[in-house]
Amino acid sequence: MAQLTYKNNKEISLVCREIAYFLEMEGVAFKPRAYEKVAEVIFDLSEDVFDIYLQGAQYQNKFGTRQPRTAKRLSGRFSGSRGGLKALESIPGVGVSIAEKVEEFLKTGKIKYLEDLKKKWPVKIEEFMAIEGVGPKTVRHLYEKLGVKNLNDLELALKKNKISGLEGFGEKSQEKILKSIEFHKKSGGRAVLGFIMPEIKKLEEKLKIIKGVERVDIAGSARRKKETIGDIDILIISKNSKPVMDFFANMPEVEKVFAYGETKSAVRLKNGLDADLRVVPPESYGAALNYFTGSKEHNIALREIAGKKGYKLNEYGLFKGSKMIAGKTEEEIYEKLGLRYIEPEMREMQGEIEAAKNGKLPKLIGYKDLMGDLHVHSVWSDGSNSIEEMARAAIERGLGYIVISDHSKHLGVAHGLDEKRLKQQWKEIDAVNKKLEKEGEDFKILKGTECDILKDGSMDFSDEILKQFDVVGASVHSSFNLSEEEQTERIKKAMENKNVDILCHPTGRIINQREPYKVSIDEIIKVAKETGTILEINSFPNRLDLKDEYIKKCVEAEVKMSIGSDAHLFSHLDCAEYGVAQARRGWAEKKDIINAWPIEKMLKMLK
Ligand code: DGT
Ligand code: CA
Ligand code: CA
Ligand code: ZN
Questions:
Q1: How do residues 472-485 score in pLDDT, each as one tens digit?
Q2: What are the counts of helices (DSSP H) followed by strands (DSSP E) for the chain?
Q3: pTM for this structure?
Q4: Which residues line ligand 1 (CB under 6 A)?
Q5: Residue 432 C-alpha to ligand 4 middle, in angstroms?
Q6: 125-186 fold
Q7: How far is the CA of 442 from the centre of ligand 4 (A)?
Q8: CA 189, 191, 196: angle at the middle one, nearest 5?
Q9: Which numbered atom of ligand 1 lies nearest the CA of 221?
Q10: What are the extents of the domains in the chain?
């Protein structure tokens, strides 16, 4: 057989959907639905279409029947047809014409029929597919009447009010389309993990209580705790998948069902995010969890290791010949591959495989390891709770200390403190500390500041004031547009100040909103090392600043970090979880994070 390019089912499904989309634009009868149907079937297929073409595995989508069939196929005793076009035609809905196109796709990586359609209709349908309320017919209409080719064009036309004249576009639908476009532009369709997590957890709880459901896990990038996620991947153990799928597809949160199958469904939620659900039998659960956690690159590496050992690893298990040798848990899969267990946050192909092989994996900081919070605001600047309320909320969460780090006077918008109010605030901190001590709480409120770094690198408070704080944080909140050299110099100067303990949110980015300011992170890390300045991992979900990659650099350079929640409300203290997640993604251990230490040791680490 000729050389083939591997294409996974998702990719094959997508080209079928694209053909369906163009044909529908052209107003062709029946055919679009046929391609659409095939796209759905292939998406839901348990076998790789690639394998079917190559070896002739037959389509079968019965729950729980895959593992033995896969095994048979592997051992060469599979008695089905011998692959090729005929095997493709055994897939429901696939006739000879679609089979030929799939074959062409596997052989050449392209389909001429689709390429011709793309030439004829030079519109970016992949952009439009993601937008609610804009279907193929509309796209054609917009293209022919207004020359709209992509989302940018459409947005411009909407804003210039060009669409109003066209039939079928009410004010409400225009507004909806615009909102949908804005979300996609801002985020590339990706949601900030910490903002969407509460919804994911609710969903998880709902699914857990369905009858027959034994276990629910959130997999994919959400399990790896990536800062943003493209969609939600949910994995369920249940012996009876149908009621689970029915429940899932009919939840009120669902806007649209893309694919509905017995073991695999995909929906668009009303919040704009997509969710994939897979129901898996218990014996394959670890393998499925491992596969759907990713990352894709990590999976590929694992599969290669399996291959070298003469095994085969897929989402159903680890196989030696026809025998499944692991699959129930992730741990046993890693073990059989000769690797230590790798935490999900590390599965990004950043050297974790090598480290797991050599027993050199770090012992990551745990989600319960923080003993204090070094970045907390109160009503004294722009927070919503009093010092006492923040302290009590911290106690409830098991912390032993917090730093009240309200803004300094330069930050007028945040009601920053001047020297006079600062003295009053310290009195209040002393009073609350005394009160808590009397109640027998083993808890300490430390006096801190999030002091502005001014444009020239000097601090918003004099050294005389700064040295009276227990903990001094320094932040850039203005002049974001300096050149890299100027910005780096400015921050260096602040770090060289003997009273500055922590550089807060070192790069200033706001995920999906604001790029980081231009700054040399390597230089910052070098100066942090020289001056003994702590670099913050700000935990607010759309900051996560330092980010994972930079945290790893700090760990390697032995620069210490702190995890701050940046809470402006008592419940924000829980955001520290995302800071820990980010620290874990950067391979940080307890020794790297100063507020994972007892208060005395932490304070000694400061300048
Ligand atoms: P996302 O959704 O863009 O934030 O990122 P992920 O990692 O959640 O990716 P997603 O949802 O496309 O797929 C979930 C996991 O499924 C992914 O992490 C690994 C696995 N996976 C998906 N497609 C492939 C593939 O083509 N090959 C391999 N080896 N694994 C895949
Ligand atoms: Ca995902
Ligand atoms: Ca997914
Ligand atoms: Zn700040």
A1: 999 999 999 999 99
A2: 26, 17
A3: 0.80
A4: 8, 220-221, 226, 229-231, 233, 291-292, 294-296, 299-300
A5: 24
A6: DNA polymerase; domain 1 (1.10.150)
A7: 28
A8: 145
A9: 8
A10: 9-120, 125-186, 199-279, 291-361, 372-605
